[in-house]
UniProtKB/TrEMBL annotation:
Its cofactor is Zn(2+). GO terms for cellular component: nucleolus. Its main location: nucleus. One of its GO terms (biological process) is proteolysis. InterPro entries: Aminopeptidase_N-like_N_sf, AOPep, ARM-type_fold, M1_LTA-4_hydro/amino_C_sf, Peptidase_M1_C, Peptidase_M1_dom, Peptidase_M4/M1_CTD_sf. This is Aminopeptidase O. It is found in: Nucleus, Nucleolus. Coiled coil: none annotated. Belongs to the peptidase M1 family.
Length: 805
């Protein structure tokens, strides 16, 4: 039943042998050095061996949560790749295949000598080269395999947790010899299985153990994608040390973090949601089943702010002149890939004093230990769950902070600070309990390659969401999308990364619902707005389907093999590194249309009450498509299912290219209806939000893009009538396309500005500029690229370079 680990160039290998050992907690202790662009320090892994958490067989096609006694959850940091803009521009003239969009760095990934290698060791006791086979070692030593890439591993050692004062209480057999492996492993086993209501004590002991002295160096070796550790004579996972400390350094070119400068010109570094996730930030177990908690101490110069996926709103501690330390932790186990960190000179944006009165109340929920008792209702592994905390379940708005570069402070005050409470409260009214206790929102540097990204306790937003006269609309919808990921993507993760639609389809569908609620629209207004957005998405999806390979249009590409892993727990994510994928929105759009179709079939009220039940059942766990579909269909009386079955949905929606015909008719009707954007009649309340629907403008401009010719006079009057330069980034994007398409030279300056300030969306424009074969446009593209390239996100820069040269 083993799958063959034979990744092609664009597949992403997950090599950690999670079937043998699972990391349960990471303790990171890191220094961030902007001078050398290196993060250096230690990570301590607390492990549990396979005998304790699983039955012998691992591969399974069952829909039940993994065959362990615990359930897991997972999410891949999603860089919402250039969301709702269009694949259209990109594809309208040049088919995907017409030029290579794989960046050079990506090509290197399969190359052993490429720059994705881990540093070949000179120091350490690294010795013989191992093969990566971790399955059957016969009489050889057990190998712990971690996912790791672009890291310089300096030393690996066993941690003597028995040396921690007071730790004796964790030993069940007091007569064990002090200093024995068995004793140390028993202590850790007790520690990792402590009940949820003792989480503070557990966290504290993790911290103390992580600082305990070493008791013997371990052999290690690295290759392109992994770090392998062994202890001489330890032949099974049970004999292998359960607490391991790794000394390591990141590399400036490592792809998990980006070193850049913010909009005020000051240095910063942050995780970008790279396809390789965090394995170039710390050695870890990438497979979704490896759900763990973490804590991290990060030191940086005192002028920097450290933000992180942590449930505490950390404040800095000065540890010496000019240097501060920040400590964060989480108690909800999550995949290591969801960990996010950002270090920069950002300021916290506070509300203006006068406006604070109308902000909804948001008292933090007291986290007294007694509040959290898993009474066996939740289906996940034990942790202090908010769904079990009466105060938390009724909290509409969770505590939140906003960070941004100084120069964007005002923009944040006008938009973000106003929107966050209403979006959070809208989300609560639709789905109930917020799975996370607090939220930081960071306005990321201009080179961030998408409009937003959600991670536990922290959301990254692009500056492009803050601009334009109707900025509340773009900012609000994007915020709602990222907030929705707290439920779909984070609290409920896909068990198999190829089923990305389980987070993106849901977040896209929910963003409209949350946003309508946040604006307090009437049911009719909400429906009108949602249908307009459906129409836009339909347009985009059609275009993407026309211009992408059929293979890439399938939402469940591994079909019945979805969720399979090898005997060791390793697997390969098909197309996980395919650079074409970052341009594809099929998981967002097709997933959205499937959910829209299901919600229509059931009726909104039934669908959303089902969704709340689903969240209650599956939060804290990993799911496959069938978990959702089965539970949904079971909740509908047979006579109302109208022939729908899990199999038919698989066949029509998830395992085929294109899109089922039944929805085409309905959607093309909306297109007819919206052929001319209607002026919208709005009541007084409209002042709070946009005066003119930006979505309507987008649709109008997209329609105009289909025209063969538009005279400069028409374009000038279009610009004047709609004040296009003042519109949000989505609208300006279409406007720039029109400028390029019709060689409207008078407005080339606006294209240049867009390419500099809206890098998350501008990448397609480079393609448009080049494909025109117009010398002046090509010159413009090259000039802008030269200006932006140094600060640009690496993979975007590579893609653009391919287009230009
Ligand atoms: Zn998303
Ligand atoms: Zn729970």
């Amino acid at each position: 039943m083993d799958i063959t680990l034979d990744p092609s160039r664009d597949d992403l290998p997950l090599l950690a042998n999670t079937s043998h050992m699972l990391v349960r907690h990471y303790a990171l202790d890191l220094d961030v050095d902007f001078e050398s662009q290196v993060i250096e320090g230690t990570i301590v892994l607390f492990l549990e061996d396979g005998n304790r958490f699983k039955k012998p067989s691992h591969s399974s096609t069952e829909t039940c949560p993994l065959e362990s006694n615990e359930a897991f959850n997972f999410r891949m940091p999603e860089p919402c790749p250039v969301p709702v803009t269009n694949a259209r521009t990109f594809s309208s003239k040049m088919a995907y295949n017409d030029f290579t969009i794989c960046g050079k760095g990506e090509k290197d990934t399969s190359d052993k000598d490429g720059n994705h290698d881990n540093w070949e060791q000179a120091s350490g006791i690294s010795s013989s080269k191992y093969c990566c086979d971790t399955g059957d070692h016969g009489s050889e030593d057990f190998l712990l395999v971690l996912d790791c890439c672009d890291l310089s591993v300096l030393k690996v050692e066993e941690v003597d947790v028995a040396a921690v004062p007071g730790i004796e209480k964790f030993t069940r057999s007091p007569r064990l010899t002090v200093g024995s492996e068995v004793l140390r492993n028993e202590i850790i086993q007790e520690l990792v299985t402590m009940p949820a209501d003792r989480w503070r004590e557990q966290l504290d002991y993790y911290a103390r153990c992580s600082q305990a002295p070493g008791c013997g160096e371990l052999f290690f070796d690295t290759d392109t994608w992994s770090l392998q550790i062994r202890k001489k004579g330890a032949q099974t996972a049970t004999d292998f040390p359960h607490a391991v400390r790794i000394w390591y350094k990141t590399k400036p070119e490592g792809r998990s973090v980006t070193w850049t400068s913010d909009q005020s010109g000051r240095p910063c570094v942050y995780t970008i949601g790279s396809p390789i996730n965090n394995r170039a930030l710390f050695p870890c177990q990438e497979p979704p089943v490896a759900m763990s908690t973490w804590q991290a101490t990060v030191r940086a110069a005192a002028s920097f702010v450290v933000l992180m996926s942590g449930e505490n709103s950390a404040k800095p501690t000065q540890i010496r002149e000019g240097c501060s330390s920040w400590h964060y932790y989480v108690t909800m186990p999550m995949p290591a890939s969801t960990f996010t960190v950002a270090v920069g000179c950002w300021t916290e944006v506070m509300p203006e004093p006068c406006s604070s009165d109308d902000r909804p109340s948001e008292r933090p929920v007291p986290s007294s230990q007694a509040d959290f008792r898993c009474v066996g209702v939740c289906g996940h592994m034990e942790y202090p769950c908010r769904f079990q905390n009466a105060t938390a379940t009724t909290q509409e708005v969770i505590p939140h902070r906003v960070f941004a570069p100084v120069c964007l402070k005002d923009a944040c005050q006008e938009t973000l600070l106003r929107l966050i409470p209403s979006c959070l409260s809208a989300a609560h009214s639709v789905l109930g309990t917020h799975p996370f206790s607090r939220l930081d929102v960071l306005v990321v540097p201009a080179n961030f390659p998408s409009l937003g990204m959600a991670s536990p306790h922290i959301i990254f937003l692009s500056q492009s969401t803050l601009t334009g006269s109707s900025h509340l609309h773009l900012c609000g919808t994007r915020l709602c999308h990222e907030i929705a990921h707290a439920w779909f993507g984070l609290a409920i993760g896909a068990r198999d990364w190829t089923e990305e639609w389980l987070s993106e389809g849901f977040a896209t569908h929910l963003e409209d619902v949350f946003w309508a609620e946040a604006q307090q629209l009437s049911p009719d207004e909400a429906q009108e707005q949602q249908e307009l957005r459906a129409c836009l998405r339909w347009h985009r999806l059609q275009d993407e389907l026309r211009n992408s390979s059929e293979e890439m249009q399938v939402l469940r590409p591994s079909k019945e093999k979805t969720g399979h892993v090898s005997e060791s727990g390793a697997s390969v994510i098909k197309h996980g590194l395919n650079p074409e994928k970052i341009f594809m929105q099929v998981h967002y759009l097709k997933g959205y249309f499937l959910l829209r179709f299901l919600a229509k079939r059931l009726g909104d009220e039934t669908y959303f009450s089902f969704l709340r039940k689903f969240v209650y059942t599956f939060h804290g766990q990993l799911i496959l498509s069938q978990d959702f579909l089965q539970m949904l269909l079971e909740s509908i009386p047979e006579e109302k299912r109208l022939g729908l079955s899990v199999e038919s949905i698989f066949q029509d929606w998830l395992e085929s290219s294109g899109i089922p015909q039944q929805t085409c008719g309905a959607v093309s009707k909306w297109i007819q209806v919206n052929r001319r954007p209607r002026k919208r009649k709005r009541g007084e309340r409209a002042v709070v939000f946009e005066k003119l629907l930006p979505d309507q403008l987008v649709l109008l401009l997209e329609r105009l893009l289909e025209q063969q010719t538009l005279s400069p006079r028409t374009l000038r009057s279009l610009h004047r009538t709609y004040r296009l330069q003042e519109q949000d980034a989505e609208v300006r994007h279409r406007w720039c396309e029109l400028i390029v398409r019709h060689k409207f030279t008078a407005a080339y300056g606006q294209v240049e500005r867009f390419l500099q300030e809206d890098q998350a969306m501008g990448i397609y424009l480079y393609g448009e500029l080049m494909v025109s074969e117009d010398a002046r446009q090509q010159q413009l593209a090259r000039r802008c690229f030269e200006l932006a390239r140094g600060r640009m996100d690496k993979s975007s820069a590579e893609v653009v370079a391919e287009m230009l040269f």
